[in-house]
Amino acid sequence: MQAVIDALPQQIAILDQAGCIVAANRAWREFAGDDGNGNDNIREPVGEDYLAACCNLGGETGVAEAGVRAVLAGAAEFKLEYACHRPPVEYWFSMQATPLSRATGGAVVSQLDITARKQLEAERAGLLVEAQRTRVIAEAANRAKDEFLAQTTHDLRSPLSAILGWTKVLRSRSLDHDAQADALAVIERSAEKQKLLIDDLLNVSRTSQRAVSTPHEPTTTELQCATPKQEAPKQEESLRGLLIVVVDDEADARDLVALVLRQQGAEVLTASLAEEAYRLIAEAVRVPDLLVSDISMPGEDGYSLIRRVRSLLPAQGGRIPAVALTAFSRMEDRLRALTAGFEMHLSKPVELTELILVAGSLTGREVAGQEG
Question: Is the pLDDT of residue 328 over 90?
Fold first, then answer.
């Protein structure tokens, strides 16, 4: 019997009817001989009163003593998980007491080291608490996002409603001259308000992606080559004689830019795709004086287009001045456009006056109100 119980991993002690240890396996003897300071001495516990030793169970002493007494008195079994602190380690054991024999009495007490399991349970509990905390934070962030989107949608729809409403009224041709002027003023104010809201949204996206600019980081003004802030050009056809290529997949935006440039005397070639614009430049009898390109287009985008243009020989238009005209207006978007080969980056909705000034500046033209 001793050889059998010595081979078991549990700590096992056999008690007589009075609760005294009559046999113990090696695991029990080794643990009993551990003084907590790393000194493992084999101690023989035979003859010791197990019930008196229950004081080693700390806060569970009373529960363990009562349970073992109940088994010695005829109860079926008793189970308990308890902590046993031996500096610097806190052990956890699963204890089980079962009757030895109805004829002879006594009990078998086994203790299994479950410290590793308890540590895993504690880690799982910690992870669960952290997951719950993260979930609460995420839910709060989602609620804040939903509220922000709802408010933003409201703020964007309000001026849009005025723009669409007054545009339909104007198309009805039911207003006199003064009323038409008032309607156009409302549309302009609403559009300006919407532009400011969009700028505010972009600024919020920048306070979350960027805390303070480093001294060597280019500012927006530097990246835009310090575009002059002059008033609208007063002389007409300030771009007369220039050949300008405008590419944008949005027809309304493309037509507006082309109209403004033509009003200043420029000859404008338009394209809806990057490939089409590339052919207009590479195959033109006359090298265009300026390229105005959208960035986000189906298929090939504006970045790819300017890289292809810059690979051409100068006589084919490889050095044509180029303006990126795009709704992407973050600092990284500006830097990417300039790095790709554009001389200037203008954000949509573009200020038409600024576009004319930039076109004149990049092509060496003097515009009224602007020094050469």
Answer: no
Q: 325 — phi, psi (to 5°)?
A: -120, 105
Per DSSP, the residues of 15-77 read E-TTSBEEEE-HHHHHHHHB-SSS-B-----TT-BHHHHGGGGGGGHHHHHHHHHHHHTT-S-
User: Cis (ω within 30 of 0) for the bond into 218?
Assistant: no
Sheet holding 243-247, edge to edge: 267-271, 243-247, 290-293, 322-326, 344-347
Q: What distance in Å separates the CA atoms of residue 177 and residue 118, rounded to the nearest whole number?
A: 84
Spell out the alpha helix ranges (H) of 172-228: 177-206, 220-223
Q: To the nearest 5 percent, what fractions of the chain are helix, strand and coil?
A: 50, 15, 35
The model scores a pTM over 0.70: no
Using an 8 Å Cβ cutoff, are 290 and 359 in contact?
A: yes
Contacts of 182 (CB under 8 A, 6+ apart): none
Q: In this structure, is the dihedral angle defined by the CA atoms of residues 288, 291, 297 and 301, taken in order, positive or negative?
A: positive
Mean pLDDT computed over 224-249: 69
Confidence grade of residue 311 (pLDDT, cut at 50, 70, 90): very high
